[in-house]
Specification:
5 helices; alpha+beta; about 300 residues
């Protein structure tokens, strides 16, 4: 009887009874504006239900989220007659680095009236609204420096290969390079300047060789060489996005060795020393002959 009294009314009254609206709070209050995901792959979408009818309504919500994202949102709510209730849909866990920058897909929010004044509604009127979810531009460069083959001697040099990879989701490039080391007698050339030319495609890499030279007077020491690269596209937007890597170079003193003249002089010195410790052979011979002459018997 209650159901008949609620729904068995004149068409004009029925229209007034079902007077409710579902809406989305679009950015800038413009439905053509997209909801831009954060770098963490999340965004909050506000929506509302306005009940202009003469009875309270209980609404059940459902959501469709693109890009394999997760979501948290209210499942059902009761909205009193003549009120407007606002809710939040939290979208998260979207891998923005794996998706092309600027790509958009639709999110959908649906609401269905499941009860009026606490009484189940067999009509179940529904409404649905959509909005665009946009992948942001992500800048990320990685730097990898090859390890040297081994220690170098003072007065020599080594070649370090530096590889820069674009791990972002749009084309990028190297806008600035910094090379630092903690050894004052270590020098580097301008071999990495070639990285500043052109851009690096999505998922691509570019490499260059850095020559590191140790002064002839460089002491034995471990030297850390650090290379830092800055994203060109981020710099163009006034942002600071950079990446660093370092390599350790062991510097040894120059090898030492004796020259042939030093060996000859050392050999002659030893020989003279041995000879100087022996008696002269002429005096030994004369003394021995004199003794034999005294001991020998005289002949008759």
């Amino acid at each position: 009887i209650l159901m008949l009294s609620v729904f068995g009314i004149a068409p004009s009254k029925a229209q007034e009874l079902d007077s409710w609206e579902l809406g989305i709070n679009y950015p800038g209050e413009d439905s053509t504006n997209s909801f831009l995901l954060s770098e963490e792959g999340s965004v909050e979408v506000g929506f509302f239900v306005e009940n202009s009818g003469v009875t309270e309504i209980t609404v059940e919500f459902s959501y469709e989220i693109p890009f394999s994202g997760k979501h948290e949102g209210t499942e059902s709510e009761t909205i009193q007659s003549g009120t407007n209730e606002t809710f939040e849909l939290v979208i998260s866990e979207i891998d923005v680095f794996s998706l092309e920058a600027g790509k958009t897909e639709k999110i959908s929010i649906s609401a269905t009236v499941i009860a009026r004044q606490g009484v189940p509604d067999p009509l179940g009127s529904s409404k649905s609204r959509e909005g665009d979810l946009e992948i942001p531009v992500m800048y990320e460069l990685s730097v990898d420096i090859s390890d040297p083959f081994g220690p170098i001697n003072a007065g020599t040099d080594a070649i370090l290969t530096v590889i820069v990879r674009n791990n972002g989701n749009s084309e990028d490039g190297v806008g600035e390079i910094e090379v630092d080391d903690d050894c004052p007698l270590l020098m580097t050339d301008n071999g990495l300047d070639s990285l500043l030319v052109g851009n690096i495609g999505l998922g691509k890499s570019k490499d260059a060789d850095l020559m590191v030279s140790a002064s002839e007077s460089h002491p034995r020491r471990n030297c850390d060489v650090t290379v830092t690269v800055h994203s060109k596209m981020a710099m163009n937007q006034g942002k600071s996005v950079y990446s660093s890597d370092e390599a350790r170079i062991s510097v040894e003193p120059p090898p030492t060795g004796s020259s042939s003249s030093d060996v000859d002089e050392e050999s002659e010195s030893v020989e003279d020393s041995i000879q100087s410790n022996l008696p002269a052979p002429g005096f030994m011979f004369v003394g021995f002959s004199f003794i034999l002459a005294i001991l020998s018997p005289r002949s008759k």
